[in-house]
Write a structure and sequence with these properties.
CATH topology: Killer Toxin P4, Chain A
Radius of gyration: 14 Å
Strand content: 25-35%
CATH superfamily: Gnk2 domain, C-X8-C-X2-C motif
Structural class: alpha+beta
Number of strands: 6
Distance between the termini: 15 Å
Strand order of the largest sheet: 1-2-5-6-4-3
Shape: globular
Order of helices and strands: EEHEEHEE
Mean pLDDT: 88
CATH class: Alpha Beta
Helix content: 25-40%
CATH architecture: 2-Layer Sandwich
Number of domains: 1
Number of helices: 2
Length: 131
Amino acid sequence: MALVICTVGDEGSDGHDGSDPAALVYAKCNSKRIVAGSAFWQNLGTTLRQVAENTAYADYDFHTQNGGWNAPAFARGSCDTQALSAISTQDDCTDCLTNLPYRIWSICNAAIGAEVKLAGCALRYEQYRFW
């Protein structure tokens, strides 16, 4: 995968002060783009929804895949419980991962593979198994 690192904090720092779980820590974006409406695009949408819905209830680390051999979509989500609210950690995790794909699209411009880490959660998706 050809990667373009979009944003990285200062060397030796994660780029945030720890107070905002939505703070961008880093983004890695594939230089290739997803074709809108393609089978991969559709499978990825399903896969990302499953990650958002299940990660908080799977010990804050969940991976899944959808699609057949010609257009598989693989994704893994995780949440940092230390960065999330102690009052509603599961809800905050779900919210973080539900909103993260929108951030990925704006940061990585519909990259065919991407990994974005916020202070509170992280998401990676690819066309191949990576776990």
